[in-house]
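Researcher: Please predict.
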Amino acid sequence: MKESRQIGLFGGSFDPIHYGHLNLALQLKKLTPLELVLFIPAAVSPFKIDRPPMASGQKRMEMCKLALEGLEGCEVSDIELKRRGPSFMIDTVKELAKLYPGARLRLMLAEDALSRLHEWKDAETLVQLAPPLIGTRTPHQLFSLTDHFSPEAVEIIEKGRVSTTSSPVSSTEIRNNLAQGRLDLEKSVPKKVLDFIKDHHLYMRSQDAGKSPGDSKPRCADYLR
């Protein structure tokens, strides 16, 4: 019997997308049966309602498209950007299940996001509908899943651990560097994305009238939901 097609769901603010995102997604795709990875920019993270992404949804979509050029089996979806209000992954999973009938959806996570997975909307159901694939860097978790999930969900989560390497890159750090006029970020951001950022003056606070990059603090809008 033919196995169901597996599709990875990689959500985030991608503000901007960087090599840390790409490396994790590509490692999980290579080490698991995923046929397709959907990068899903969030409209607004439920955990960051008061701190929305600095770049518009359209521009974050464009940056994702540029970053994914030439990467087979990787696409970007605007499914969350089309919805009003906070971007809850459980709602996205239910929508995608209708768009990809018969496919096995897999939530893609970095290990540090696992510690707050229980705070996501309908987390128990989410784990059942889209069993997570977790890029794991340490041999043992630093918190107890059993405090927040049923034994069945814990088993699903533990089975989804995949040993990966990490990239010490964060969107916050990139935005901070750009706000301070540091543009030599080719090691952190794909060149096409960096060129797009420069062309559209994204994250560069010097664009504010009469202000230099150091006149105001860049906002922190890391993705976690």
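Model: Residues 6-163 form a domain with the Rossmann fold fold (CATH 3.40.50.620).
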